[in-house]
Amino acid sequence: MPMNVGHEIEGISHRVGGTGNEKFLPFSIETISTEESNSLTSNTVFEDLNTDVSDAKSQNSHIVTNVLKTLFFILIWYIVSTFLTLYNKTLLGQSMGRFPAPLLMNTVHFSMQAVISNTVTWCCPHKFRHSVTMSWHDYFVKIVPTAIGTALDVNLSNASLVSISVTFATMCKSAAPIFLLLFAFSFRLETPSYKLLGIILVISIGILLTVSKETDFELSGFIIVMLAAVMSGFRWTMTQILLQKESYGLKNPLTFMSYVTPIMAAVTAIFSLILDPWDEFTTNNYFNSSWHTTLSSMLMAFGGALAFFMNLF
User: Fold this and answer.
1) Positive or negative: CA dihedral 313, 294, 263, 184
2) What is the mean pLDDT of residues 285-293?
3) Where are the transmembrane segments (predicted)?
4) I want to staple 80 with a disulfide (CB 3.0 to 4.6 A). Which of 44, 120, 177, 310 is the partner?
């Protein structure tokens, strides 16, 4: 009997059900290949979807982490800044007999920041100074004015606390964005617009209302704190110019501090030698004995530590 192998193979079937009424489906290699292909395609789609979902979750987690980190730094900055303001007011106000040398105090603060920041950056140059490239021309044209503006801002702000309250000084210093925008217009960092002019107008009206409602108004203190606001606007405008220049490599706060604080300390020391009452130190309660001088030095060092951590954040 002849054997037709080809027809025998094509006739092979496999069982799907087995309850008495058996049903047979013809075995098809093409059908199996199509099903496997569809299965592989579906698996690939699900894998891509899972990957996209995983990437989205990772990105959202990264955004949330950055937001929480930023909020944490802002909170720490406000806490340290508040402590520093209260420290300055307490030391320079009537409650502790008015510290006789506010400029000397600021010189100590700036000197501490200069020593600490330069020590750290020089000990770890690969992390802080490897990307800093600045000519002497840029140093004197951009770094020096920024440092002088910052020194004047801090010194004038502290001087105003001698005659006006912390609340009034803080509200007057809120005029700094006005001068910041004006300097930004001057240096062409911002383009004037009706929106920005409206912001300036609203802030100005708020400052006028604040001044008109102040019961214990002191003209000299108001003038000093407004000059501090002007210097604050100039200082932050120059800071923005320095930070936007990638080649300077000053985005790290320690690196930036190491460049500006030595000049700030030198400028304030010159003002201290001229304006502080050095001839009265021996009769003042803060410096009339070695023990009092030691306590005063510790007080100034404490303020310097607060100022360093505030600038660090």
Assistant:
1) positive
2) 90
3) 67-87, 161-187, 194-211, 217-236, 256-275, 295-312
4) 310
CA 90 → CA 100, 226, 244, 296, distances in Å? 13, 21, 37, 13
Q: Is residue 64 a part of any domain in this protein?
A: no
Supply the pLDDT for residue 5.
44
Give the number of other Cβ atoms within 10 Å of residue 79's Cβ. 13
Coarse DSSP helix, strand, coil percentages of the chain, rounded to the nearest 5 percent: 80, 5, 20
Return the axis-axis angle of helices 144-160 and 219-244, rounded to nearest 10°: 150
Under a CB-based contact definition with an 8 Å cutoff, are residues 190 and 245 in contact?
Answer: no
* Domain count of the fold of the chain: 1
Q: What is the H or E stretch that residue 14 is in?
A: strand 13-17
pTM, rounded to two decimals: 0.75
Say yes or no to pLDDT of 143 above 80.
yes
DSSP per-residue string spanning 48-65: HHHHHHHHHHHHHHHHHH
DSSP secondary structure code for residue 94 in this structure: G
User: Is 204 a member of any domain?
Assistant: yes
pLDDT exceeds cutoff 60 at 53: no
Tokens of 289: 């004995």
